[in-house]
Amino acid sequence: MMFSRALKTTASEALFERAQAALPGGVSSPVRAFKHVGGTPLFMRSGAGAHVEDEDGNRFLDFCMSWGPLVLGHAHPAIVRAVSETVARGSTFGTPTAGEVELAELVTSLYPAAERVRFVSSGTEAVMSAVRVARGATGRDLIVKFDGCYHGHADYLLVKAGSGLATAGTPDSAGVPAAIAGTTAVLPLADLAALRAFMRERGREVAAVLIEGVPANSGLLVQEPAFVAALREECTRAGALLVLDEVITGFRLGAGGAAARYGVRPDLVTFGKVIGGGLPVGAYGGRADLMAHVAPLGPVYQAGTLSGNPVAMAAGKAALETLRAGGWALLDDRARALEAALAPVCAAAPGGPATLVREGSIFWIVFQERAPRAWGEVDAAAAKRRFPRFHRALLERGVYFPPSAFEVFFASTALSGDDIRRAARAIAEALEASAP
Ligand SMILES: *Cc1c(COP(=O)(O)O)cnc(C)c1O
Question: What is the distance between the alpha carbons of residues 159 and 162, in angstroms, rounded to a whole number?
């Protein structure tokens, strides 16, 4: 057995207690509250490389990585330096700055489909704005998303599939008017026939079809390249725009993201997470003629007080430059090493199947025989039964996983060979400890 300990959580508990009186549920974003795994959320106080330390002084090997942005690990020296130097000269001006030009040039040169790019402050904002451009440019209202994909929390994207054969979305959150949810249709992933049938019938009403670069918000639902190609084809035929949501995959799956991996050219693309190097940055971009609809060039309004914030731009630029200068190759190497260590551990798991799914540096462990490609293929009950004990056992062995069975985990360039061996041992033991 690895060193397994009862976690000391006194400081986190005290903070969580205080937090409840000031923040709804004690958190600034719901999944952080540990509701899916039980126990007290851990309040982190520092991070370096692949490791984090909480307020009780517990140290963890971190696979949450702030849900994706930290592709280079915590407190990477290039980012710390860029941020420190920039903030010392003033944190925001509300004017154009050189930094946003530099980051925009990097983005447009690395990612060919992004001929023009507009910076915002989150992935949600990026997707909202791209949808507005799509609607403005096509003069159509309907958008299409896929069941299991997450695109941020705009009203018309907090929508789930309707019952039966109905494709009209129904609200997936209180506060979303049914009339607004009705402007979104929801289709199953990995289902060519459903996609074709819908687009042949209603494609001419569709402003945009949205899909994640690799669907990674309901587990990791890797799509066949043929499905993505068909999606491109159906959009073109119907005059609908293809919006590739690369908020997770952009600058993580190499320079060209999922678009390059699948050989697909989106009309519009959204970025977040990695593009800000750990600071709040989102961006949307695409064909120059479409981006010409955005104010001040065109009639689609979109603005932001802190958009293109110079400190955040500097962090993003440092991250992308580090990735370009060997970072992506190193990330690929680390991800392959992690897969080589974890796949046999999962395959040998006692107490029911565990399957390791990987796309680039994005990973998921699912408690069923085969990797699902659609939400309907996920054995959610099995995952919910086993994951809380699995997660707790990992914490007790110094490994921090995202606190939900349906969240992916991330490799970073900061993982050492020793980290990977430790992770494999901890995961093997946690699988055993969580076996029914
Ligand atoms: C995280 C995420 C978003 C939302 O980004 P925020 O910065 O959390 O608003 C949108 N799309 C995808 C694919 C995401 O993973």
Answer: 9
Give the residue, out of 127, 155, 270, with the most ligand 1 atoms within 8 A of its beta carbon, to mutate for a pocket test.
127
The DSSP-derived string for 186-245 is: EE-TT-HHHHHHHHHHHGGGEEEEEEESS--SSS--PPPHHHHHHHHHHHHHHTPEEEEE
Q: CA–CA separation, 37 vs 201, rounded Å?
A: 43
pTM of the model: 0.97
Judge whether residue 4 has pLDDT over 70.
Answer: no
Pocket test residue of 212, 217, 307 for ligand 1, highest count of atoms within 8 A of CB: 217
Does residue 311 surpass a pLDDT of 90?
yes
Q: Is the peptide bond before 30 cis (omega within 30 degrees of 0)?
A: no
pLDDT number for residue 150: 97
Q: Which two tokens stand for residue 210?
A: 């949205």
* 247 touches ligand 1 (CB under 6 Å): yes
240 alpha carbon to ligand 1 midpoint, in Å?
22
What's the chain's average pLDDT? Answer: 96
pLDDT at position 428, please?
Answer: 98
